[in-house]
Write a structure and sequence with these properties.
The complex is a heterodimer of chains A (643) and B (79).
Chain A (H helix, E strand, L loop, with lengths): L2 H4 L11 H11 L5 H8 L5 H16 L8 E9 L6 H11 L2 E6 L6 H6 L4 H4 L4 E5 L14 H25 L3 E5 L12 H4 L4 H19 L2 E3 L1 H8 L1 H4 L2 H7 L8 H15 L6 E4 L10 H8 L7 H18 L3 E7 L2 H10 L10 E7 L3 H12 L6 E4 L3 H10 L15 H7 L12 H20 L3 H7 L2 E6 L6 H10 L12 H8 L5 E9 L2 E13 L4 E9 L8 H15 L4 E6 L11 H4 L3 E5 L5 E6 L10 E5 L11
Helix pairs in contact in A: 2-4, 3-5, 4-5, 5-14, 8-10, 16-20
Chain B lengths: L2 H16 L20 H15 L5 H6 L3 H11 L1
Helix pairs in contact in B: 1-2
Classes of the chains: A alpha/beta (643), B mainly alpha (79).
Chain lengths: 643, 79
């Protein structure tokens, strides 16, 4: 039995007092209770414990208690099997990932009816996403041994069925669709030949999976690779014939916590809550041994040395993550120059100083250092993962900074890389080419900050950056990144409204809606898309600024001034003479409380609990242009002068 | 493992599964006596017992169970 995955070994073990702590929360009547629930969900809970936690969450929801800061998400689950024991596990596990998950569960085995009927339970409930939790027994599969044409027809039939379900959901409630790959049964007919011979169950399911992932990618749907999960734990472990026969359980009860964690990761990723930074300890984590004691020659980090290769595997994984856009940082209790030595001088180190965005080697406690890293990167603590071999450091960071993910590590460093990977902290639902450059952006920012220290005034500094700002309306090419920004920008975000890919597609095609995607390049490179604006029609002659967000990477560059100028230019062209903007406070967006005031808007009123409304009229003074070149694509021609 | 030990461990399991602290586990106790002991919770109970005692029941054994006494007898026969 593969216990790393099935026991969720990257999570801390459940403490003895779990049940009493859970009861305490339920009875304490604290509000909001999100943080406490999330803290209890951090442990490797079994199905019974998850069920209890879900019960408390359910009660809180019925009692209309606030579950903040958990982010609400409504997920409909369509299945051909019994998921009643899985549903509470999903709800509780979602809290671990910062999501307040509500499950819409129609009657057993009503997949097609629910998807295709416009006023079905699922379609009427307008979920954020629909998950097709189907297993191979839901598909019309008939053996057609050695028959190329017949087996292809079967594969196309199954794919057609899935596409019809998708079409039903898209037409009737336009939710995000989540598809699962299918786990082939363990029982073989010809043995190894099953995989090759057309028309065996194995062959059919392999081909269906391969076609399914292509259409998911093409349509921008979301994939849950259940076949991949089953592969990791073993298909024989996955399929449980007793439970299927007795109660139509789709897979072994022992794998429910693991499955639920994978679903919760996907949902969290849809909401932009995947982690973005990997913070590494050095001694006995990045290399074997203690650099301060063992010296450059004494540490284990060489090929051919089993211990060294274990640590190199972790370095390799960090580098691969960096390549897909994850930012790397170091937090080590060391003298700075000593800690840097292996990076500079050890020939077999894969990680170089160039790869590390923030390098914190000092004698402060690690919580302080991690906070410093978060500040330097302008990212929240909930974007951080901290990997350290030392259980004391792990415990300290967990207790002082519960938002930081800190995986438990096994004794043997050979399993470090696998454990961090199994935790799925960086799981994503889409990949934008800009992700590839992200780690570099943050590093360039550190350079820019240095440059800022050197040059005199801010304007001189901005001019020295040689910036080019590009404005475009939303389009299909930019959509993945637009959705990503909308779902993960927390700080420079006026309204924090989250939209899914299909919702953005609707806005993109609505001629009454004005949308803007903004890119910025400078001497250090291309920052990619850094700002998104959505204006919707209000009263006649008025645009409501529904969404205005910006990446914190370009703070202090007067980008927002240039964006306002561009909005005004388009507003005039559309006969609009007034903009109305709203600031909706959250835990994280204090940064922009004065955004509209600074841009010359006038406060209309303060509605409730800090929500403020602002207006900008045609006669108000538009902000001065900042020193940057402006490129406009796909929008009305630029005017030379402004009214 | 003798009967009192089995009953003691079952008490903890029942409390956990039914989320009910003052549940009295007696040989006569059966589904009709406990709120929330439906077919699904029954399966969760059996699976928890299997895991706690490190045993597996067969499909027909699970189907034949009528009360806690029967469950204890089954556990004893396997221990």
């Amino acid at each position: 039995m593969n216990s790393l995955e099935t026991d969720l070994q990257w999570l801390p073990r459940v403490p003895q007092d779990f049940s009493s702590r859970l009861k305490a929360i339920a009875n304490l009547d604290v509000e909001p209770m999100g943080r406490e629930l999330q803290a209890l969900a951090q442990y490797a809970l079994d199905v019974n414990q998850l069920t209890k936690l879900a019960k408390i969450i359910g009660k809180a929801r019925t009692g209309r208690k606030s579950l903040k800061p958990l982010v609400p998400f409504r997920l409909a689950v369509l299945s051909n099997s019994t998921i009643d024991m899985i549903v509470p596990a999903l709800v509780a596990t979602a809290a671990r990932h910062g999501v307040d998950l509500e499950i819409i569960q129609p009657s057993y085995d009503q997949v097609a009816q629910e998807a295709l009927t416009p006023d079905s339970t699922v379609n009427r409930s307008k979920p954020d996403a629909v998950m097709f939790a189907l297993d191979y027994r839901a598909l019309p599969l008939k053996l057609s041994l050695g028959d190329h044409a017949g087996s292809s027809a079967t594969v196309q039939g199954a794919i057609g069925y899935l596409q019809a379900l998708r079409q039903g959901i898209k037409t009737n409630c336009n939710a995000v669709c989540i598809f699962q790959t299918f786990v082939p049964p363990v029982e073989r007919l010809f043995g190894s030949l099953d995989r090759a011979l057309p028309g065996t169950l194995r062959n059919l399911i392999d081909r269906i999976n391969s076609e399914l992932v292509q259409f998911v990618l093409r349509e921008g749907d979301v994939l849950l690779d259940v076949a991949g999960i089953a592969e990791s734990v073993g298909a024989a472990q996955w399929h449980d014939p007793v439970l299927w026969n007795m109660a139509k359980f789709p897979f072994s009860d022992q794998l429910i916590p693991l499955y639920a964690d994978h679903v919760a990761r996907i949902v969290a990723a849809i909401r932009g809550k995947s982690r973005k930074v990997l913070i590494l300890d050095l001694d006995n984590t990045v290399w074997g041994g203690v650099i301060g004691d063992d010296g450059l020659e004494g540490i284990n980090v060489a090929q051919g040395d089993a211990r060294g290769e274990a640590h190199l595997a972790l370095q390799r994984m960090a580098l691969d993550l960096r390549q897909r856009g994850i930012v790397l940082a170091v937090s080590s209790k060391n003298t700075d120059s000593v800690a840097r030595e292996p990076f500079e001088k050890h020939p077999e180190m894969l990680l170089k100083l160039d790869h590390i965005a923030v390098f914190q080697a000092n004698w402060n406690d690690k919580a302080t250092n991690i906070q410093a890293i978060a500040e330097e990167l302008s990212l929240g603590l909930d974007a951080m993962v901290f990997v350290d071999d030392n259980p004391v450091e792990r415990g300290l960071v967990r207790s002082l900074l519960p938002q930081v993910a800190v995986p438990e590590l096994p004794e043997d460093p050979a399993y470090y890389a696998r454990t961090v990977a199994a935790a799925g902290y960086f799981d994503a639902v889409a990949f934008a080419t800009e992700d590839l450059q992200r780690a570099g952006f943050y590093q360039d920012n550190a350079k820019r900050a240095n440059l800022q220290k050197q040059v005199g005034g801010v304007d001189a500094y901005l001019a020295s950056l040689d910036m080019t700002i590009t404005f475009q309306p939303f389009d299909a090419t930019g959509r993945a990144r637009i959705v990503q920004l909308i779902n993960k920008s927390n700080q420079y975000n006026l309204t924090t409204r989250r939209y899914t890919d299909p919702e953005i597609s609707v806005l993109e095609n609505d001629p009454s809606v004005f949308t803007l995607q903004v890119r910025l390049a400078d001497i250090f490179g291309d920052n990619g898309m850094i700002s998104v604006v959505i204006c919707i029609p209000g009263e006649p002659g008025v645009w409501q600024i529904d969404t205005w967000l910006m990446s914190c990477r370009v703070l202090g560059r007067k980008v927002e001034h240039m964006v306002l100028r561009e909005i005004l230019r388009n507003a005039r062209a559309a006969g609009i003479d007034k903009l109305v903007g709203v600031y909706r406070p959250t835990e994280k967006n204090k940064l922009v409380v004065d955004h509209y005031a600074k841009l010359g808007f006038t406060k209309i009123d303060e509605v409730e609990s800090g929500v403020t409304r602002w207006a900008f009229s045609a006669q108000d003074a538009e902000p001065d242009a900042a020193p940057m070149k402006v490129v406009v694509q796909g929008l009305p021609e630029r005017e030379r002068t402004f009214a | 493992m003798d009967e009192p030990q089995i009953y003691q461990r079952l008490s903890t399991i029942f409390q956990d599964v039914f989320d009910e602290d003052d549940i009295q586990v007696t040989p006569e106790l059966s589904a009709k006596d406990v709120d929330g002991w439906d077919s699904l919770t029954h399966i969760r109970l059996i699976l928890t017992v299997e895991k706690a005692f490190g045993i597996k029941f067969s499909t027909s054994e699970i189907g034949k169970l009528e009360n806690v006494g029967g469950l204890v007898a089954l556990i004893k026969s396997r221990a």
